[in-house]
Design brief:
523 residues; 4 domains; EC 2.7.13.3; PAS-like_dom_sf; 14 helices; 12 strands
Amino acid sequence: MQKIAASGFHLYGFTLLIEILVLSLMYLLNQVIDVTTSAFVLFFSPVIITAWYGGLKAAIFATALTALAINYFFLPPINSLLLGGEEFIQASLFLIQSFLFITPVTLLKSQNTLKTPVEIPQYQEQYFDCITKLEQTKAALWQSQSWLQTIVENSYSAIYIKDLDGRYLLFNHKCETIFNVSRGQVLGKTDYDFLPDETAAAYRRNEQKVIELGKALEFEEFAIINSQPVTVISLKCPLYNCEGIPYGICGISTEISDRKLMQEALIKQAEELAQINRIKDDFLTTVSHELRTPLNAILGWSQVLRSGKLSDTIVAKALETIERNARSQKQLIEDILDVSQIVTGKLHLQISLIDIVPIIEKVINISLPSIVAKEIQLNFGQNQVNEKILGDSDRLQQVIWNLLANAIKFTPVGGCIDINLRIEEWEKTTEKQKLSCASSLLKFAIIEVTDTGIGIKPEFLPFVFDRFRQADGSTTRCYGGLGLGLAIVRHIVELHGGVIYVQSEGEGKGATFTVKLPLVNNL
């Protein structure tokens, strides 16, 4: 019955059917008895039934329909809607009684409806289930999107998405930090709009490779951002739609600029350490060779002298050879000791007021036999330099002797060596002097030793004054030495407050060593 009353059309049809049944029953009864006085009570049944199942509106409809039927079929004049005085009173009483029945029935039905669960049709239950699941899915999707957005925005890696044309669809906060550009300036644009063309082209090639192979690939990518090198490790993977067709690229890039610089520094340091170890190994090999060579000569000539019956010429040659090799060995040992003192900081100067010219002349006299033996033309030029310097006479003599000895050693027979001494003035202005628009002159003694020897390779020039470094460090080289002399020279010059540097146009074009020392009047 509830299912029949579920819709308005069925409800009013049901009311009409009851009216017809009651009307038929009343017509039959009217053939036996007079229903106008006692049987109207039967007409209350459709009104009550309709009020219970259909509610107030349906009950009013049933009451009106019943009143019309009674008026037309049972109240005189029959088959007419016109009413006399008495008949009008009867019809009115029926209406009043009907409403008295309708009111409690509808109220009782309302209370019963509140207590009794409404039976929902199956199709409505399915609809409500779909709505509920849709709301749950929507909430889960929103939560997932919220999680994903939080992860993407707070990631330490740059996360981005591009379409197949390279236009940015997503650009997280880390991307803004690395590339120094806001997402508003990037979304909908390509790398060519804010990166150098070369960098953008490299990124594009990598992304096309990912699409072609259809799998995730890792790349090390480089860019110049605000004149600073930026290196990232990028994992790029293709994105597919529901039909399996690629529509974009997802990239996750981690900046490794600092790590890259540190790695390069470590590699460079490792190479330098390996080079130092090789140099030390070569130095030890050279030391053993350089010490053994004069010892062999000394031992050989000593055995010759012990054999006796030698001419005076042979004896003189033997003694001269022994003395020369002994001096050579002594020099090697002194160089090693000097380097040891330099390394430990124990090399000290005996400072006094000295003249440079006599020191240079003394060194020339000591080296004269070697100069004559190689027929070298030596020129010493100085423009009446009388200024003095504060320094260690023996150590400065060692500096000049090393420079001249190197020039003699590397200059071929018949070559030329020039030693020039001059004074140069340099203008110096302190902050206090700038305020008073004044300046002072500094004087320096410049000593230049120039030769026409074998010269120096351009790539070796930066290492000329390094310890244990020689252009040819093999034991089969043409020239002896430990490669310590120039390192000692530089240290001594710097202890005097000076500087030393070398110039050479290349192999076979000679070299010029320049020493710059401050004079006394600078103090």
